[in-house]
Amino acid sequence: MTSACRCAMDLLPDRTVRSPWLAAISAGVALLLVLASTPRIASGEAEPAPEEAASSLREQARRMYLMPPDVVRDIEPRTYFGAYLERVEPDSLILPEGVRYETGVGIDRVVPGSPAEEAGFREGDIILSLDQERFGADPDEAVNILSKRLKEKKPGDRIRIEYLRDGRVRRVSAPLGTRPILDMPSKPHPELASIFQGRRDPSMAERAVEQFDLLEEYAEVASQTAAVAAVDYNHRQVLPERPNPFRLQEVTYLLRRPTELALVSDGICRSLEDEFNTEQRNTAELVIQAAGHLDETVPRPPSPPRDLGLDGLIGVMEKSTRMIGEALDELTHEEMELAHRLLPTLLDYEDDWEEALEEIEDEGARKAAIAEKEEELATLFRAALRADLGRLFGAAAYLSQLSDPPAANRIRATLADFPAKPFPQIYEQSFLGDIRLVRETDFGLVVIGGPGTSVYLADAALIVDLGGDDYYANNAGGSRRESPCALVLDFDGDDVYACDSAISQGAGLLGVGILIDYEGNDTYSARNDAQAVGLFGVGMLIDLAGNDSYNGDQFVQGGGVIGLGLLCEGEGTDTYRAHCFSQGFGYVKGLGLVLEVDGEDTYSAGWKYADFRIPDRAFDSMSQGFGFGMRPWVVGTGADGGIGILLDSSGHDVYMGDFFCQGSSYWYALGILLDRSGADRYLSGNYSQGAGIHLSVGALIDEEGDDQYTCYDALCQGAAHDWAAGLLHDVSGNDLYVGHHLVQGGCGTVSMAILADGGGDDTYVAGDVAQSQGAGVWRDIREYGSIGMLIDGGGEDTYSDARISNGATITKETWGIVIDSDTASGDAYAE
User: Fold this and answer.
1) Cβ proximity of 678 and 626 under 8 Å
2) Locate the PDZ domain: which residues (predicted)?
3) What are the chain's domains?
């Protein structure tokens, strides 16, 4: 799992953590943060209404950086060999007597049906020469030389290869093929099509591309990025007849049209917050909208019955349980057992299955274990594809309606005077305090707590608590094998939810789990797989009021893997703490959401699981609006990623993370962090603050306020790496940006990155200005540059790069564009 996020950081210059520059900027950042510890709030100015802010965002995107999609062209067919290459240590190259080669290139895996397989190559073969050219003595350089030589060939060319197998040098001549191009569906966006129809004013970026004669370069970068949307990089197919079955249509659309990232991200967020805000609470429609972004259609559920007393609630639970069973009816018992066992282990730093496979020393045993794991994952994914996810999500939509005001009011009024009834002695130590009812049913235990303090120590399928400061040390709305549908309705009190068991506090594993807390200052503590996570199911945690605290370790606080995890918070000042895979995290075919309606909130993720690049300083977060896919690295069974969203509508908020966070993504995924208003502070490490990494797209959008963005290293603040796209768009305010390398509209390895600031007196600080502040970087591995843009819409601005001044429009090599407008319209090209 951790190896799946190994970016090609060897492409970046090496830097030690104790470099003089980093020490200096660290001190500077500390001073800046101290000076700005109190958010700057303009007195006497009303915050813009959400619709006004959205309109401003859309208008700025159109005016500043939208590019017409017709520049994207078909890429020349790529040469295809169909083998995954690996380095070979010189001391492991055992050659026949009299044969001399300094090194070779190993074949780690052969793609079924590829030219390499047709030529007879197998895993473990070592290529010694290509067309009589040897590869030198450096094992890493040998892989690069062979890869480059293969790219230089054309489809149909014959190649002559010498290779080593079973101690013998063999020779083969074989033709190269063409990489298969897939027809991947793309999300339709008719609401955006009109932007490019008829007569229109070109954006500032479009005019700069024309001014600096960069249309050919822009078109090539855009076309290469679009082309990866039609490619399958998995070594082993889950369903050979259906490549990339988990590729989300929204990701395909954005890889093809990356400059529309802000508009699409805002549209996704608006579709969700329109259903859950200060004036509207329609949770069924929220589920339906979220499922739609996973390309699943959910029929609108029937309304709950008018009678929502005990019998009515039991009826709702029975119906929801039946719907879940019908959704999973096609799965065998063995597949269900595999899913229960395997899904919670996919994301676990403390039990890293990929690392364990790599550490098997015996080569034969390692390859056998890898093959077994590949088949296990393929079986899991094939089972998921046979499940009726639309019906499964529909069960959640139906059950979630009990949180909406009409139903909630009826439940509370009907059960307000529910009398205490004797319950089986076996449960006397499991449910303590003001307990009115414990009843056994076919779908699990039903428990009713009174208005006094209650303590829940055993799992239950349905809990209705009428008030009091309560303590939950159980599943608290977490599904179980015997109870695939679980629900908690807690109407009042300062409650504590504390559970070390996975699948708790609004979590669904092969089922639906919902926790709804209506009032009170509540505390939620869990370890893994909890607090609104859905694994092949739906998990929801809805807290409507109070100053709340969320604490967890991994895969918590809004996460989805082949499912939905929706954490919705109403009013109050809330605190979120986690270590990894949290706070709006979307994994394979999953959508994870944190939707915060109001309050001064703090989000913290990281500082436990070290990142291998800088293990004495950096930690992986993968949180706060982060999309992530299963890159086929150790095993060949890969799967494309999901959508992670952190949406905060109001308040002066603080976001703290490290590597991989804050509106970013990795491997065919989408990450979004959208903050509607407030003076906010963002602190992170690498690959964050609007970064797309490895065939992925990410966006950080802040619509209002004097904001501070700090990244202590690289690839942040509108950044991208490896056929990807990243965006940071700050609509208004006097903002501060601090970073080091490949930041503030910096990117490499044929990618596109944009930092757009709509206006205000802004400060841009970067350590390496040659590769930051609107900079595209040439990478030999792709033999091409990238498109990096920094566009500022107005104000008195300050830049580290001495080449940039107010009112300037400049270009940088391979290929950067910087536009600073000092016109009243905010358009550098306005007459």
Assistant:
1) no
2) 82-146
3) 79-178 (2.30.42.10), 288-330+387-550 (no CATH)
